[in-house]
UniProtKB/TrEMBL annotation:
Descriptive protein name: Aminopeptidase P family protein
Highest taxon of source: Bacteria
Key words, A-Z: Aminopeptidase, Hydrolase, Metal-binding, Metalloprotease, Protease
Keyword Protease found: yes
Domain Peptidase M24: 168-374
Pfam families recorded: Creatinase_N (PF01321), Peptidase_M24 (PF00557)
Gene Ontology molecular function: aminopeptidase activity
Family: Belongs to the peptidase M24B family.
Organism, scientific name: Sphingomonas longa
InterPro entries: Creatin/AminoP/Spt16_N, Creatinase/aminopeptidase-like, Creatinase_N, Pept_M24, Peptidase_M24B, Peptidase_M24B_aminopep-P_CS
Creatinase N-terminal domain residues: 33-160
Length: 392
C-alpha cells in the first residue's frame, strides 16, 4: 500500500478496540515469579531481595506505581511471606492493586522506611538490592545490613518471558503496527510532525491502549538524528519519513520504527534502505540459543561494513547498538552490543534496529522485535517490505 491518500478522520473512524485480547498476567504466575526469586537468593548469598517501585515491582506484585522520594518496595524473604513496604496514607491505593499475599508494613511520614526494611529482613540478613533502587536508599540499607547486587535475580527472571508475556507483547506490537499503517496513510504535503504525533496517540487510544508511550515523527534531515531534532517539522515531497512509537498492554511495551519515502527519493537513499533491510535480516538470522548478544550486533555490522559503512560507530554507519531487551521496560537487559556476552536463551526478547545514519542528510531505521525460540528466533511483527510500500 502506498503512502498518503487518506484523511485523519477516515483512518480514526476505521479503528476500534483490539478484538483479540491476550489474557492478563494472573496471580498464579506472579506467585511463581516470587517463588523462583526466593529460590535464587541462595545463588547470590542473600537472604532477602528488595525490589523498588517500577517495572520490577509490577512484575512480582501487579502494583504499577512509579518510584518517588517515598520508599515503596517489595521485600522477598527466603522461607517467609514477602513484605510490602508502603507509606501508611497509601494503603488504600496499595490494596486496590496488590494481587499477591504479602505482609503490608506501613510507615508514617516522620518514620524511617529503611529501618522497617532492615527489621523485616532480620538482624543477620544479607539483602540483595534492586539495581534501580535510588543511591541514597541503597546507602542507608548498607549502613544497617549487609547488601549484595540483586540484578542477577531480577534481571535473570525478567529477561526470560513466559508464554503469557509473549502474548501480551505480541498484541502490543500488532496494535502499534496497525497504528503505523494508518499514520502512513494520512501523510500529505504540509502536514506537521505534531499533527502526525497527535493522530498516532489518538489511534493508539482507538485500538484500546492508553495512548502512545512515546512517539517520534521525523522528516528529511531530522531522520539523520536517532532521536530527532527540536521543532515542529513540515513534510515536503521527496523526503524520508521516520516514525518510531509504541504503547502498553498490561504494562508490556511495543516499540516499532518504520522509515519510508514520501514521493520520490534518490537512488542513494534507496540503496541505503536496502542495506539497512539486509543488516536487520542478518541480525535475525544469527539468533539461536547459545549465541551471545554481541554476536548478533556483529552480524548486522558485518553487512554494513560490507556496504562500505563504518567501521564501528563511525558515520556514515550505525552509531549505536543493534538492539535492546524489552518487556515491562522499553529498554531492559540484555543488549545486542559489543561487550555484552549474555548467552541467548528461549524467551528472551529484543529489538532489531541497526540504524544507518548519513550525517546531515538522512537516516534509515527499521525496527522490529523478536523473541528467541528453541531453534532460532520468531518475529513479533514482520519487517517492512519496501521503502515505497511500507506495509505491503
Amino acid at each position: 500500500m502506498s503512502v498518503g491518500g487518506s484523511t485523519i478522520a477516515a483512518e480514526l473512524d476505521a479503528l476500534s478496540p483490539w478484538p483479540d485480547q491476550a489474557p492478563r498476567i494472573g496471580v498464579g504466575e506472579r506467585r511463581e515469579r516470587i517463588a523462583r526469586a526466593e529460590a535464587a537468593l541462595a545463588t547470590i548469598g542473600a537472604d532477602a531481595l528488595l525490589v523498588t517501585a517500577g517495572p520490577s515491582l509490577r512484575y512480582f506484585t501487579g502494583v504499577s506505581w512509579s518510584p518517588t522520594e517515598r520508599l515503596v518496595a517489595l521485600l522477598i524473604r527466603a522461607g517467609r511471606n514477602p513484605a510490602m513496604i508502603c507509606p501508611a496514607f497509601e494503603k488504600g491505593s496499595l490494596d486496590a492493586e496488590l494481587v499477591i499475599d504479602a505482609d503490608v508494613l506501613l510507615w508514617e511520614e516522620h518514620e524511617d522506611p529503611v529501618a522497617l526494611v532492615a527489621d523485616a529482613a532480620g538482624p543477620t540478613a544479607t539483602i540483595a538490592l534492586d539495581p534501580l533502587l535510588p543511591f541514597l536508599i541503597t546507602e542507608r540499607v548498607r549502613a544497617l545490613r549487609a547488601v549484595t547486587n540483586g540484578a542477577p535475580v531480577i534481571d535473570g527472571l525478567r529477561r526470560i518471558k513466559s508464554s503469557a508475556e509473549l502474548a501480551l507483547m505480541r498484541q502490543a506490537m500488532a496494535m502499534t503496527l496497525e497504528v503505523h499503517r494508518r499514520a502512513s496513510r494520512i501523510l500529505t504535503p504540509g502536514i506537521r510532525a505534531s499533527t502526525v504525533k497527535r493522530f498516532i496517540d489518538d489511534a493508539h487510544r482507538a485500538v484500546g491502549a492508553a495512548g502512545s508511550t512515546f512517539c517520534a515523527v521525523q522528516f528529511g534531515v531530522a531522520t539523520a538524528f536517532p532521536h530527532g531534532l527540536p521543532g515542529d517539522q513540515v513534510l515536503e515531497e521527496g523526503q524520508v519519513v521516520l516514525v518510531d512509537t509504541g504503547c502498553l498492554v498490561d504494562g508490556y511495551h511495543s516499540d516499532l520504527t518504520r522509515t519510508y519515502a514520501f514521493g520520490e527519493v534518490g537512488a542513494d537513499v534507496r540503496a541505503t534502505w536496502e542495506l539497512e533491510h539486509r543488516a536487520q535480516a542478518a541480525a535475525f538470522a544469527a539468533v539461536r540459543p547459545g549465541a551471545t548478544c554481541e554476536s548478533i550486533d556483529a552480524a548486522a555490522r558485518a553487512v554494513l561494513d560490507g556496504g562500505g559503512l563504518g567501521p564501528g560507530y563511525r558515520l556514515p554507519g550505525l552509531p549505536h547498538r543493534t538492539g535492546h531487551g524489552i518487556g515491562l521496560a522499553i529498554h531492559e537487559p540484555a543488549y545486542l552490543v559489543r561487550g555484552d556476552t549474555t548467552v541467548l536463551a528461549p524467551g528472551m526478547c529484543f529489538s532489531n534496529e541497526p540504524m544507518i545514519v548519513v550525517p546531515d542528510r538522512y537516516g534509515i531505521r527499521l525496527e522490529d522485535h523478536f523473541h528467541v525460540t528453541a531453534t532460532g528466533a520468531e518475529w513479533f511483527t514482520q519487517p517492512q517490505p519496501s521503502i515505497d510500500a511500507p506495509f505491503g
